[in-house]
Amino acid sequence: MDLLKNRIIQDGKVRDGRILKVDSFLNHQMDIVLLNEIGKEFKRRFEGEKVDKIVTIEASGIGIAAIASQYFNFVPVVFAKKAESLNIDNDLYKSSVHSYTKNKTYNVMVSKSFIKANERVIILDDFLASGCAACGLIDIVKQAGAEVVGVGIVIEKGFQGGREAINNLGVKVESLAIVDRMEEDRIYF
Amino acid sequence: MDLLKNRIIQDGKVRDGRILKVDSFLNHQMDIVLLNEIGKEFKRRFEGEKVDKIVTIEASGIGIAAIASQYFNFVPVVFAKKAESLNIDNDLYKSSVHSYTKNKTYNVMVSKSFIKANERVIILDDFLASGCAACGLIDIVKQAGAEVVGVGIVIEKGFQGGREAINNLGVKVESLAIVDRMEEDRIYF
């Protein structure tokens, strides 16, 4: 997706040679025009697939998934939560996920009411690195007896094994931009 | 907003007489058709106001704000973050907020790059109770030298003082549904 790659080149920043900051347009400040183009492109990548639901994970996936839903017949979006709070149902699907950027392991959780057996689910997220978050979401969808149509990723870091981890679960990955290599303020696709 | 009130009556659940669960359509599973109607109504409530940016807070505000932006000329959405991570800028506006549902105090943070002096900002969130989150966001917008046009809330719990707290800061509140009183499985507007 050239529009996205050009935006990453223009506004992305590399920190410590390993962290790609795109928080000016994707995951802190969000460019809603760009998010609409991203939603259209996800629809194109999954054209012809029946989709009942989009599942994502808080926080950065939510805006992407909400906008993308508009191109998938406005199917409901469910976002997995990362910490237990008083106003979440006790009846939960859970999976354990390690975050490299936050350097901690946590449970991701979805109320059992919101993914039903045999639903066809697309998983969307902003980043794919090691694949931990996506694999946790796949685990949850499978616990529900639902089917993962595929995983849609805005930016894949192609050198951290995430795609292989997801493919090993029998799930296909569609990434809109794949970063092969990063140097200080230089990004290779 | 009758569509919203009817949906709250139909699908909302009261827990322990004080927690209103609307996670089947608003803040865990999201009904994107409803979110579009909510976005249109926020636009109507702030009709005629120049708006440069929408500010919200992770996680539940993000989908609401992303969809609403489409009715405000696709202005950028900035979501305040609740915990420090490695990929957020060090140059941050911070404010301290207490969450009653999670029963803890945390910093909310916005990178200084994403709110500029003299910008006109609308703050959107899913719930207003004590007003802590909204007041924290107002504090951050004011630290940036920007102007708060108003606070837009999907569901206000009208008996927990949040509106007064915000009005005391000189900011107006537009809530799409105001709950006056709750009993087990009965909600009064």
Automatic annotation (TrEMBL), chains A, B:
EC number assigned by the record: 2.4.2.22
UniProt binding sites for xanthine: L20, N27, K157
Key words of the record: Cytoplasm, Glycosyltransferase, Purine salvage, Transferase
Keyword Cytoplasm: yes
Subcellular location: Cytoplasm
Principal subcellular localization: cytoplasm
A Pfam family annotated for this UniProt entry: Pribosyltran
Enzyme class, first EC level, given as a word: transferase
HAMAP family attached to this UniProt entry: XPRTase
Descriptive protein name: Xanthine phosphoribosyltransferase
Organism expressing this protein natively: Clostridium algidicarnis
Lineage: Bacteria, Bacillati, Bacillota, Clostridia, Eubacteriales
Name of the coding gene: xpt
